[in-house]
Design brief:
Elements: H1 6-29, H2 34-59, H3 66-85, H4 88-108, H5 115-119, H6 121-124, H7 131-148, H8 153-167, H9 173-177, H10 182-188, H11 192-206, E1 215-217, E2 222-224, H12 233-255, H13 260-275, E3 288-289
Antiparallel strand pairs: 1-2, 2-3
Helix pairs in contact: 1-2, 1-12, 2-3, 2-12, 3-10, 3-11, 3-12, 4-7, 4-8, 10-11
Length: 290
């Protein structure tokens, strides 16, 4: 079944190749600043990693678990669009501060005498660091503190503190900025339907709480669905490709606007026919009846 859909999977891998080459091209055209690093080396790279996961899973016929990757693709797509839409510098700075704080938190666990080391003593008690390793970690934490103590990061860092002091972990960076949730971000983008009909259902799969993805209840029996459901490959590919086309256009518009016309021509000449292709699947599934 997976082999039967190889053209659809090849479309996904072709788009993946395009995306990996887009990272260095876009960075070359960028100011090479913190924004470019966060958008290209963090968000776009993370998007491509999940897109690669989708392609790898589909090649093995695992369309069901690819939904977890699709959920991440949609979330990253929304986050990137929201970041670039307005107040980009402030949003990037919040993302950066959140990562610095997380790095400092985990590195501090290895430094004797810190609050983090005391709080996680059971987990870090077995650590055995050389003096050079301890100095390297201590210097890194000191460097992070210096960055967080300079404007504009100091004011953003202070916004994280109340929640951290109360609960010993940080709120998500977008929430500290002012967006209450991923749903709120989708609403601000005018994409609440995407969140409602795509993101939310995939959450049930992610957290192992969706009964109807796993079983079918009949009058006299209980049917357990197969672990691999390759008949869903075309639908997964279509969603993955849709997200990829959208994200690539965001990046092109931001960093290589002159290339967008070529991208559109490439879509028409190489990708559109397979993207719009309709597959008909007829299955006689093996049922496990309990």
């Amino acid at each position: 079944m997976a082999s039967h859909f190889k053209d659809a999977i090849n479309l996904l891998t072709d788009l993946l190749d395009y995306g990996t080459s887009l990272i260095p091209r876009a960075y070359t055209s960028s100011p090479k600043d913190l924004k470019a690093i966060c958008v290209l080396f963090v968000q776009l790279r993370q998007f491509l990693e999940h897109l690669d996961g989708v392609a790898t899973l589909l090649a093995a016929g695992s369309a069901g678990t690819a939904n977890l990757q699709l959920r991440s693709l949609l979330e990253t797509s929304h986050a990137m669009e929201w970041l670039l839409k307005s107040d980009t510098e402030a949003k990037v700075n919040h993302l950066y501060v959140a990562n610095l704080r997380q790095r400092r938190h985990w590195q501090s666990m290895a430094i004797p005498g810190t609050t983090q080391a005391a709080r996680h003593a059971a987990a870090t008690g077995a650590l055995s660091l050389t003096p050079d390793q301890l100095k390297e970690i201590t210097d890194e934490v000191a460097g992070i503190d210096r960055i967080l103590g300079t404007a504009p990061f100091d004011a953003i860092n202070a916004k994280f503190e109340p929640h951290y002091q109360a609960r010993n972990f940080d709120d998500p960076w977008y929430k500290v900025y002012g967006a209450a949730s991923i749903r709120k971000i989708a609403d601000e983008l005018g994409k609440l339907k995407e969140y409602t009909y795509i993101y939310s259902p995939f959450s049930g799969v992610t957290h192992g709480s969706d009964m109807w993805k796993n079983i079918v209840v009949g009058d006299q029996n209980l049917q357990v669905n197969p672990l691999r459901q390759p008949q869903h490959i075309p639908g997964v590919v279509r969603l993955g490709v849709s997200f990829a086309l959208h994200v690539y256009r965001l990046v092109l518009q931001e960093y290589r606007p002159a290339e967008e016309e070529n991208f559109n021509r490439k879509y028409v000449a190489q990708w559109r026919a397979e993207f719009l292709r309709e597959y008909k699947v007829e299955l006689t599934p093996r049922e496990i009846v309990i």
